[in-house]
């Protein structure tokens, strides 16, 4: 069981976290837009998340906090 | 539940201006993590370059100075020689460090100046809009090499780590990459060691970080990281090019 | 009376700097100022200071920039072509509002020029050299004694106004030997809360920087800087007046040229010509008031300098062109003789200028 918190408004939607996730938990939102005008990354399969923090490791904007 | 990953303290709480997917943010974070983990936030002084990282002075919570283009190692020398008890690092790109600032780089290395240099090699001038860098690959298309870098016309890319490793002076020269999780973790280790060396008074430590520039390479962030693997790393292999202490210990 | 020691001009600068508390010197070899570096190389290691020969003038001025930002008294020295190389750094130092002392022992130019004394860097020193809106305090010694005292003063002014002080000397005074005393000049220390010392996790980080991407911020920064410069212009001009009380003609000269000019003034007085001398000691801030006051008194001016005529533009400007100004100059390393200057004074008297 792990918990990810995103500073969604700082996300630039680059998708590097999505690619880094070994479990396919993340996706770029298709219908949401953040304050900066980007479609942000979001959790789509929380139950699969193992808290490995690969996503946060690759996030260039340091917007992900991982708890486990 | 415990926090297993969060923004390091030494990375300021401000949005980074970098393009989406630009690894500068990753490398900034690694530097800040190293500073935090070594407990040197209060005595570190950073030197920002001219280039995309020009505003790095806003991104680190430590004391910062903005250097003239290429002169960061000289500016860092002035600071370190004035305040040897402080920890001084520069953060420079390939145009800054390997073109206009080559003399400052080589001589700081030759002096074994007790500073830490984070050298981001993404084979292009990012801030000015994608011109050919001293590290642009043969054949690489840029704004100023629109038909691909012709080595017969404008010469070969410079392998900074290999070159500096030939000098007697420097303590530690290594090349890392930030194109995947494994490499990012290795980069973190190298950066931390480069700071640790300074704390121990060992001298000049330079970490060349092979990075990407999705915007000016004309790629998505994912394609750019792939290109690092397929094109950059074969030309710029990762590895430790010089580690005086390790070499000495191996001899003994 | 203070004890006198016989010193070379360049060495006097170095010794004065040490006495002013400077413990950091970064330089690159160039004639005719190498004695400064040699002196520092010998002395600094013995007193816990730093002498470092940089790989270039560019590197050395950027080391100065770093050390200045770290809050220590720091200097570099060079000669004309080297100052051109340092000009980039001078602009950054000005744009970042940190204090430094830079010595220019001038030689002839342009280009590689020559190694003989010259005053042809007046424009570069007083009007810029580097890019952008900025000023430096420019001090022009005319004796070995002044090489020392103006160096000490220069450090003080730099710290006080967060500017570069430039000692604008020339090869002659640099090489000249004269007895001097290091009078107990006050050495002031200044608080530097802006300096890079490490936050010690006790304060917000200090940033030393000259980049302002927002136009209104950059403008405000420049305006603020010029308000400071205005105070310097009000408070700090220095000059010497010689035989000006009843003068009908005024010679204007600084540095080595003023020494020649002084002899010529004495000779002209012997011929009955009422001539005096104004010697600017600060070239920036220029002694405007002295020149303007003289313009209301004298019939004409003779500007003596070792260039094709650079300071003469300021003499005309600050006398508001009220009186004619003639030029008596040599350049390229040549120095006008007292006779040449005397002849120029005679011409001025005849109204031939």
What does this entry look like structurally?
The complex is a heterotrimer of chains A (68), B (252) and C (353). Chain A is of the alpha+beta class. Chain A has a single domain, classed as Alpha-Beta Plaits (2-Layer Sandwich), CATH 3.30.70.20. In chain A, 15% of the residues lie in helices and 21% in strands. In chain A, the strands form two sheets. Chain A has a two-stranded antiparallel ribbon. Chain A is globular and about 30 Å long. The model of chain A has no long low-confidence stretch (mean pLDDT 96). In chain B, strand 6 and strand 7 form a beta hairpin. In chain B, helix 1 packs across helix 7 and helix 3 crosses helix 4. In chain B, the strands form two sheets. Chain B has a seven-stranded mixed beta sheet with strand order 3-2-4-5-9-8-10, with helices on both faces. Chain B has a two-stranded antiparallel sheet with strand order 6-7. By secondary structure, chain B is of the alpha/beta class. The mean pLDDT of chain B is 98. Chain B has one domain: Rossmann fold. Chain C has 353 residues and is an alpha/beta fold. Chain C has two domains: 221 residues, 3-Layer(aba) Sandwich (Rossmann fold), CATH 3.40.50; 110 residues, Rossmann fold. Chain C contains twelve helices and 15 strands. In chain C, the strands form three sheets. Chain C has a seven-stranded mixed beta sheet with strand order 3-2-4-5-7-6-13, sandwiched between helices. In chain C, helix 1 packs across helix 2. Chain C is globular. The relative contact order of chain C is 0.13. Chains in contact: A-B, B-C. At the B-C interface, strand 2, strand 3, helix 2 and helix 4 of B face helix 3, helix 4 and strand 9 of C. Strand 3 of chain B pairs parallel with strand 9 of chain C, so a sheet runs across the interface.
